[in-house]
Fold:
Amino acid sequence: MGKRLDKVALSAAEKALLKKLLSKGKHAARQVKRAQVLLHLDKGRPAGAIAQAVGVSVATVYNVHGRYLTHRLGALEERPRPGQPRKVTPEVEAAVTRIACSQAPEGHARWTVWLINERIVRLGHELHDESVRLILKKASSSPGSKSSGASAK
Structure:
């Protein structure tokens, strides 16, 4: 088998919190599984038995155990995942909406997604036409309508 796990000694408050998490409310499945693993670890069960009882891998049991030792109940929470940062920041969304709500450029009756994207690129942001369309859709804005979502009150 794998290496032996030290018994986790949960305090009464920690046990109560974990049991409450399992019995009430809606919680992420991963968080529930981690709480179950911690309660089994507190009973001193072997990793293989815990993995089978909870429905996770043995590696998950070891990972939760290690995270509990360093972060206590912080082991229940998700860690930030690596990845590419968002290209469409709130500032870019605001700029797209501001442009769509402004007067159309000379020679055009209304803003198009292509024209908005062209203006955004000139402002130094790199976006695709589809990203602009999705921003406008999210803002309930239609560049082709007379009112592009902004109220003139």
Summary: The chain has a mean pLDDT of 86. The CA atoms of residues 37 and 53 lie 9 Å apart. Residues 90-138 form one domain.
